[in-house]
Amino acid sequence: MKNEFRALLERFAPIDELAWQEFASFIQLKTYQKDEMILPAGKTCNFIGFLYKGNTRVYEIVEGIEVNRVFFLEKNFVTEYYSFISQTPSKETIVCLDDCQILMINYEALQQLYAKHKSMERVGRCITEYMYIRQRNKVTNFLINNPEERYLYLLKENPQLLEKVPHYHIASFLGITPQSLSRIRKRLEHVSSPK
Predict the structure, then answer these.
(1) Helix, strand, or coil here: 50?
(2) Of 64, 103, 114, 139, which shows the fewest CB atoms inside 10 Å?
(3) What's the CA gap between 115 and 128, in Å, rounded?
(4) CATH code of the domain occupying 2-117
(5) Could you say which DSSP state residue 12 is in?
(6) Stretch 64-74: mean pLDDT
(7) What are the structural domain ranges in the chain?
(8) Which long-range contacts (CB under 8 A, 24 or more apart) does 44-47 make?
């Protein structure tokens, strides 16, 4: 379990053995049930996690409606990154779509590791750059593309999302109704099916 977390981190930069051993000593395994909140809105996010098992969604309440902002899938990070790096209360909620097992490290421990180990600091910087690029691409996609183009972008960038996340949550993420998503999917199936 911890080795898979290390492999994910080392996609960004290598971690020396001493830094990894110290990092691993701070990791805690937490379990959550389906529909359980990992982070409620209004609370400061104090963790970065490795989603060993299960899938999650991040949503914000906008005019009384839950609007999905991002999904974190199994074997990837889970956090509310803005709240984490700014150490301010989150406007978003993280909730489990399935039963989840998450390896977590808290903010204070990570800051200690950054100060003590150059390899950990480099990994942290690379992850921050990755998160920025990911967020920038999402914002650009929403600003310049219509709903069908946003859906096609999602299919290209994250095809497994459609297998792991209910379609009404994907519709919310795309900023459309479930009925609109259904029409888009039918139209695309019709276009791609052989005559």
Answers:
(1) strand
(2) 64
(3) 16
(4) 2.60.120.10
(5) T
(6) 93
(7) 2-117
(8) 44/83, 44/87, 44/88, 44/89, 44/90, 45/79, 45/80, 45/81, 45/83, 45/84, 45/90, 45/94, 46/84, 46/87, 46/106, 46/107, 46/108, 47/79, 47/84, 47/104, 47/105, 47/106, 47/107
